[in-house]
Amino acid sequence: MGATYDAVLFDNDGVLTTPTDGNVLREAMRRAFERVGVSDPPDDHLETLRSPTVSSLRGVASEHDVDPERLWRARERAAIDAQRAELEAGRKRPYEDVATLDSLETATGIVSNNQHETIANVLEHLELHGFDCWYGREPTLAGIERKKPRPYYLERAIDDLEASNPLFVGDSRVDVQAADALGIDAAFLRRDHRSDYRLSTEPTYEIDSLEALPDLL
């Protein structure tokens, strides 16, 4: 059945590790605002800061008369620290089927919309070894623009692995869209938190566990 893939790349949150609780991230956004002198941001600004475009970030920063780069640095530090605390507390953990990756003979990598430092913390704390390369987002305004569905980091990882026929495994629309932008195959992983999730782009495969991967390779 395999398509002779020479590399497999993975999203992280929801694929390799459990997603960070939304309330934890929301409180991290509140702390970020506090660090730049905004004591009571409205709810919609908290939500914007969780996943902004550069334009929406600038808009929120302008409303509070805060430099957008300063606000974003505070946001990234708060998010990194909050997720590290979740790792240390054992609330952010690897899925059991991640053990399947040990049996893969292809090169492997990680491409995440999370911060590069957070992915480093995940790999270190959870002792997830063996990945040939990994990319998280730069904690800058440029990093916002480069996150998936743009294939910027995915393309860099593929180049690092010198792969000609890679497979990308993700659990979101942006993962499938990033793969589609590069013309590579995508496996959509429908875990429990994605039971009713609808895709806008058809993936090459839909799987419910990483244990299905060896049969695809």
Question: How would you describe this protein?
Answer:
This protein starts with 6 loop residues before the first strand and ends with a helix. 36% of the residues are buried. The chain has nine helices and six strands; from the N terminus they run βααααβαβααβαββα. The longest helix is centred in the middle third of the chain and has 22 residues, at 68-89. Helices cover 43% and strands 14% of the residues. The radius of gyration is 18 Å and the shape is globular. The chain has a six-stranded parallel beta sheet with strand order 3-2-1-4-5-6. With 217 residues, the protein is of the alpha/beta class. The chain has helices at residues 22-35, 43-50, 54-63, 68-89, 116-125, 141-146, 152-161, 173-182, 213-216, and strands at residues 7-10, 107-115, 133-137, 166-170, 185-189, 205-207. It has two domains: 7-18 and 93-216, Rossmann fold, CATH 3.40.50; 22-89.
Return the string of H and E elements. EHHHHEHEHHEHEEH
Q: What gyration radius follows from the Cα positions, in whole Å?
A: 18 Å
Number of DSSP E strands: 6
Q: What is the CATH topology descriptor of the largest domain?
A: Rossmann fold
Q: How many angstroms does the end-to-end distance come to?
A: 8 Å
3D shape: globular
Strand order of the largest sheet: 3-2-1-4-5-6
Topology of helices and strands:
Layout lengths: L6 E4 L11 H14 L7 H8 L3 H10 L4 H22 L17 E9 H10 L7 E5 L3 H6 L5 H10 L4 E5 L2 H10 L2 E5 L15 E3 L5 H4 L1
Parallel strand pairs: 1-2, 1-4, 2-3, 4-5, 5-6
